[in-house]
Amino acid sequence: MTYSWTVVLGVAGAATLDLAVLRTMLLRRKAFWTAYAIVLFFQLIVNGLLTGLRIVRYDASTIIGWRLAYAPIEDLLFGFAMVLMTLSLWVWLGRHGVQSRNRAAPAVPPTRDAATRRAPGG
Q1: Is residue 80 a contact partner of residue 36, using CB atoms and an 8 Å limit?
Q2: What span, in angstroms and rounded, lies between the C-alpha atoms of 81 and 106?
């Protein structure tokens, strides 16, 4: 299986996870597309540098060959699938009250320590 086919399956899987399995419906939200545009901007910079400087190279037989800012289109699709899956799971976990046990304690109003309390009449 080529990188191209793997990426197509990844995008399809991420969309299915978002729309049908977790039903977070991020693909239908303007906020998701805005956030993804920001991620894409930086992905193009980093991917462009890595592939443009030939730090990362691709076997031409495993990719379609279309590039954007030196990066193969497959990398952009892979990044899309990764961001969509991550955010879908994050939203789903948040909706279902799943939280880390290592979170900071909720803020409580300060109380007087027994040693600093004044005795009545004193």
Answers
A1: yes
A2: 35
